[in-house]
Amino acid sequence: MGxxxxxxxxxxxxxxxxxxxxxxxxxxxxGKDTIAxxxxxxxxxxxxxxxxxxYPITLHDVLRGEAKVxxxxxxxxxGLKIIPGSIGIKDLESMNLDLLDESxxxxxxxxxxxxxxxxxxxGREAIKSMEIADDIVxxxxxxxxxxxxxxxxxNLAESFDTNVLGVVLNRIxxxxxxxxxDEIKSLLELPILGKIPEDPLISQSIHKKIPxxxxxxxxxxxxxIKKFGANLAGEEPLIKSPGLFNRIANxxxx
Length: 254
Ligand SMILES: Nc1ncnc2c1ncn2[C@@H]1O[C@H](COP(=O)(O)OP(=O)(O)O)[C@@H](O)[C@H]1O
Ligand SMILES: [Mg+2]
Fold this sequence. Notes:
Radius of gyration: 17 Å
Mean pLDDT: 93
Strand order of the largest sheet: 3-4-2-5-1-6-7-8
Low-confidence stretches: none
Strand content: 15-25%
Number of helices: 11
CATH superfamily: P-loop containing nucleotide triphosphate hydrolases
Distance between the termini: 42 Å
CATH class: Alpha Beta
Largest sheet: 8 strands, mixed
CATH architecture: 3-Layer(aba) Sandwich
Number of strands: 8
Helix content: 40-55%
Shape: globular
Bound molecules: adenosine-5'-diphosphate, magnesium ion
CATH topology: Rossmann fold
């Protein structure tokens, strides 16, 4: 039986989808049978990050009771499995979120990891994907608004008796205006599982629809996500030291 890990945040736009798409690829590269699920049902965009935005059958068909989750499973060229959401607004009608439970349990029975890209905030879909999870990872930026909202999500998650693994800090710039690691740790009382730097190559990789760990595998954000993903699986990260040519190429593409 695999683990269902939901990625959640208080504030939107902190980097959940970036984190889920890349971490799923990292786990897949480590040989783990991994499925990335777009659990952000009202504003799904996981499949855009992974480069295949239009699918004939999506999680929305499953949540309407019109398809089996197996039929909404697609294989990324890397071998990673993806359950996409539909980007059509009409597909939101007559959706039954309670059908998510059996779909995710089925997926977990047939894989090592099910990573769920959750919704931001404290709404019904965020709550649903937290309730079903074995573990929760909270994503935040190192600023006061994101961390304050992260605290609310943490308190909510703990009220369900769900295991909150910890927090991933994304878009670290080390500017003076940023909250420090110690400040965030004492505000959230959670371990810090990952520290992802601000990296301009991330927006470039989203534009190219190739997650950064594949697009620029030696970039600072890629290395940080590889460490986080490997740690999640209790493995050593697969990090090649970049040769001089790659270092110059990375530098030039900034
Ligand atoms: N480490 C990072 N460095 C630079 N930009 C980032 C980083 N992480 C995310 N971003 C940017 O932030 C935006 C929001 O990220 P996304 O993963 O879509 O957030 P969420 O899923 O939480 O709404 C993306 O468009 C991306 O360009
Ligand atoms: Mg998102």
